Amino acid sequence: MSSIHLFLKPSISHAATNLRRSIKLQNGGRVIACATVDLRAPDSTAAAAAESKAVMEAEARVLVGTYARAPVVISMGKGCKVYDPEGKEYLDMTSGIAVNALGHGDPDWVRAVTEQANLLTHVSNVFYSIPQVELAKRLIACSFADRVFFSNSGTEANEAAIKFARKFQKFSHPDMKYPPTEFISFSNSFHGRTMGALALTSKEHYRTPFEPVMPGVTFLEYGNVQAAEELIRCGKIAAVFVEPIQGEGGIYSATKEFLQALRKACDDAGSLLVFDEVQCGLGRTGYLWAHESYGVFPDIMTLAKPLAGGLPIGAALVTEKVAAAINFGDHGSTFAGGPLICNAGIAVLDKISNPGFLASVSKKGKYFKEILMQKLGGNLHVREVRGMGLIIGIELNVSASPLVDACRDSGLLILTAGKGNVVRLVPPLVVSGQELDHAAEILLECLPVLDESNSS
């Protein structure tokens, strides 16, 4: 039985029946929006709990065990709230790991998806499609880039960047027997889980089970200008991969000096500079692109998470000099840049790129950081509150897991980062000030669990 069946079955109380009447239905009864009211009557709670348990037990039987999931079944969402089958409400400060930038069920996004689904969903890249071209035009118009390559995820975008960098070096050095093929990445970096992107990811426990991964990657200390300049100068580096703000790594921000030094060193040596903005890009920092705040621009930028508002997409944005090295057949994807996904991307990008929207993200981010420092800063377990816009990290001197669990029990969904001691807060960019206040209050109320956990 699906979660939608649960919400619509006859045993639901009068209150839930009213909810059912308030749900907007299209295309044969598919739920696309709902009101935020009590979802279940007491007599249906047991049935819903049984449904959640059944889902978790079935997952253990039918899916490969790659995820250590939180013990919650999410059955629907609206705005910055999500609900389990029992009707419990959670304030979502994860936004699907920085994906649902417009929250859940944004009406413009829903309209873009449903209208395009009625027209054309997939044709492959054997043919042209209008939404793909339109989204690419928009991305170029609001960025440094001249060309776009679409993929299905952030790790695929980084795989494309790896291939493009290698091909660019061969193209640029046609008479060189051994053109530059190596890469630089940095401590605390995360670039993906496919074999090339995995080789660029610093955490050893991600790489070790799958070695040998792609050779030729050197990891340097994030922010170490001298080490980077010396290695780039050797002439063997095809590209430098760097996140302007590291998400998975622990919400660490690069300095302007560091990115400027990378830019100059790459220019001098003929290496490419790749900015991975899969998590920190597209409005998350209060700027459309995180690198805008530094005034430093890359040769390639990789995007993904929020671009289609919850549907799978990635993109590698490149300059003309990089694009000139790429020929038909050098790279491709069956599903990438499909009309349904790209029409959703247009709706998201049009909203996020609005200057007023970006200003609101910046304002809310500053406010959230301030109240977190006020409420939590005096706690002996809180080392630092850092971040920019609505990508914020709370570094602890103990594991963050007990706090994550306690917050979830209190109706707040948050993430960890770094070495497991950083609370990562990446709410939908449409989050309200009241919701930020509520999140800070729950965090404050749950902090004592760190004392209990530490003492035990």
From TrEMBL:
Pathway: Amino-acid biosynthesis; L-arginine biosynthesis; N(2)-acetyl-L-ornithine from L-glutamate: step 4/4. The keyword Amino-acid biosynthesis applies. Its cofactor is pyridoxal 5'-phosphate. It is found in: Mitochondrion. Its main location: mitochondrion. GO terms for molecular function: identical protein binding; N2-acetyl-L-ornithine:2-oxoglutarate 5-aminotransferase activity; pyridoxal phosphate binding. One of its GO terms (cellular component) is mitochondrion. It catalyses: N(2)-acetyl-L-ornithine + 2-oxoglutarate = N-acetyl-L-glutamate 5-semialdehyde + L-glutamate. Keywords: Amino-acid biosynthesis, Aminotransferase, Arginine biosynthesis, Mitochondrion, Pyridoxal phosphate, Transferase, Transit peptide. One of its GO terms (biological process) is L-arginine biosynthetic process. Its EC number is 2.6.1.11. It comes from the Eukaryota. The keyword Transit peptide applies. SUPFAM superfamilies: PLP-dependent transferases. It is an enzyme of class 2 (transferase). HAMAP family: ArgD_aminotrans_3 (MF_01107). Belongs to the class-III pyridoxal-phosphate-dependent aminotransferase family. This is acetylornithine transaminase. It comes from Camellia sinensis (Tea plant). The lineage of its organism: Eukaryota, Viridiplantae, Streptophyta, Embryophyta, Tracheophyta.
